Amino acid sequence: MSQVRTRDPLVRVLTVIAVVVLCAFAFQRLMVWHDSFFDLRIYMSAVNWWGDGHDLYDYAQPDRVQGALYFTYPPFAALLLFPFGLLPLGVTQALFTLGTVAAVVVTTYWLVAPLARRQGWPAWYAVGIAAPLVLVIEPLRETITFGQINMLLILLIMMDLLVLGPRGSKWTGVGIGVATALKLIPGLFIVYLLVTRQWRAAFTAMGAAAGVTLLAAAIAPRASWDFWASALWDTARVGRLDYTGNQSLQGLLARLVAPEQPAKWLWLLLALAALAFGMWRAARAGLAGDAVTGLALTGLVSGLISPITWPHHLYWFVPAIVTLLAAAQRAQAGRRWGWLAFAAGVYAVCVIGVVSLVDWGVDAVPTDTVGLFLARNAYVLLSLVLLVFLPVNRPGDYPTSRAV
């Protein structure tokens, strides 16, 4: 009788409503209100400044923590953002928020629908529970409250790897290429295509990235020269390395020695080690047919090796959790609980986050206790743990190639 009741559509609808309400409450309680679409304001102010005839990469906006922040994306991103600068800021904020939520729903469907079918659940039910849970984690809270474009990049990358690629589409790689032209670091997914021997998709991605970059150069030659010749190489434009929000390996090192600067050779050594090991594991996953683990590992590597990685860059914990849930589905009872506990632990860290609950202030101070080291580097350490222990599943554990 209880089995019948749990399959009742009304029970499922009420369950989804309850999850949405609880997650909305949690989001409101955990959200950092002072963010106030800060990054989106920089985007809009910068493109409007540019539209008034100034040099795009000369725009600077004061920041209480990091002094001044600049427009740091390639010119192609500025061209896409330019029309939004013509709209009232409130309209643009609403559009970015709705776009992020819609992208979360779509990408969550791509990730969890196969697991739901194997469990005997309707896809809408799994997505209705999972998507609100995704929106509660700090990387998504920060994406929304800062007005970031990260979920557009995630959507483009996942469309290639989880939808078009498994179907053998000739368009596979275009999304990764466009994402790379928008924000550079997704270029690591071109490396993933190469190490998993997806040659056509890799060259398609390279062609797409080069094509839209050249188009931007033809439309905005001065801005393109400024970016590629100067702004790209100035990491001080992005923010302080030691700030707790910087959850990269270089951020971890900077917090150990603040206010001094970390040794570049040590960072390069650690970054190369993470790149080599992480992409080796990602290649093994991809070649074994586990695109979700390959996706998660490549994303985690990108966060570790980037000079600056903010919490809103770290969506990649979501596919990592899905990988752990897929492993739990196929495991025997004892190990199943182990994988589930691992997934729950990853999710808990992502909900608590590194900057939402603690104001770390503006002083550059070293992390001189174990507790501070763990708290201020939670995402870096979690990424390293997942790089080592994230399981590689069989393709049938989430048959994205046919079910999506």
Automatic annotation (TrEMBL):
Pfam families: GT87. The chain crosses the membrane at residues 12-31, 68-87, 94-113, 119-137, 149-165, 171-195, 202-220, 265-283, 290-308, 314-331, 338-358, 370-392. It is found in: Cell membrane. It is a multi-pass membrane protein. The keyword Mitochondrion does not apply. Coiled coil: none annotated. The keyword NAD does not apply. InterPro entries: GT87. Keywords: Cell membrane, Membrane, Transferase, Transmembrane, Transmembrane helix. Belongs to the glycosyltransferase 87 family. This is Glycosyltransferase 87 family protein. It comes from Catellatospora aurea. The lineage of its organism: Bacteria, Bacillati, Actinomycetota, Actinomycetes, Micromonosporales.
